[in-house]
């Protein structure tokens, strides 16, 4: 941990950032024009870079996940259609992925579309499928995340439920980025944790029936290795919108003592300052989390 005076300086810098960048974490949304707007934007970016540099002096999580909740409520607040809320949410996602890349986080998992979301109105589901196709193409073809930082896109979920045209775009996005060595982005689309666990169990059964696995080899690690979401253990789970629930997302991974933060702000309003303080609080709690994990791994005495 940094010396106490460094944390005080960080607190002051973050406070300044809040007032400079605004509650949305982006100076571009301030009611300023021309030179003032550009000056404030440059100042906010400089402060963000300074906070990133300081944060990277400490431990950085390898895997962070987001439940991106609140897009529709954000749209209602602005008296817009729900699809516009999802559009605002995508713009915030681009910023969050940039922050994660700058911080050096290697794996990011995103809850983009739950299986039970297919129960929404046909118009909204169709609009979300169209938006998913457009934004996946934009993410792969135009964003710095892939072109400059070489991120790898992996879409995780039950693809049999997706329309054929969406599956084609998903496969194309994965194929285009499969050799990239940068941050891995797991887009959980048509996903639920219970479906993921059921799929892992089916894979276990198939491997036993196929002679690739014996019944005595079935254990926690065997099941975990067959889950849909790859990568290291989940370090941090963040849910926006103030709702305190997991919504059937990454239940297996979260149960392994992930650091959980429920943020009382809608996803399009999620700011870098909030991201920064979540990271700092995780760094401060890291030793305690590792001690608890060690106790859980310790075999019970007989």
From TrEMBL:
UniProt keyword list: Magnesium, Transferase
UniProt superkingdom: Eukaryota
InterPro entries: UPP_synth-like, UPP_synth-like_CS, UPP_synth-like_sf
Record GO cellular component, one term: endoplasmic reticulum
This enzyme's EC code(s): 2.5.1.-
Pfam families assigned to the protein according to its UniProt record, in alphabetical order: Prenyltransf
Gene3D superfamilies listed in its UniProt record: Decaprenyl diphosphate synthase-like (3.40.1180.10)
Molecular functions (GO terms): ditrans,polycis-polyprenyl diphosphate synthase [(2E,6E)-farnesyl diphosphate specific] activity
Gene Ontology terms: biological process: polyprenol biosynthetic process
Listed HAMAP family: ISPT
Family statement drawn from the similarity comment of this UniProt entry: Belongs to the UPP synthase family.
Protein name: Alkyl transferase
Gene field: RER2
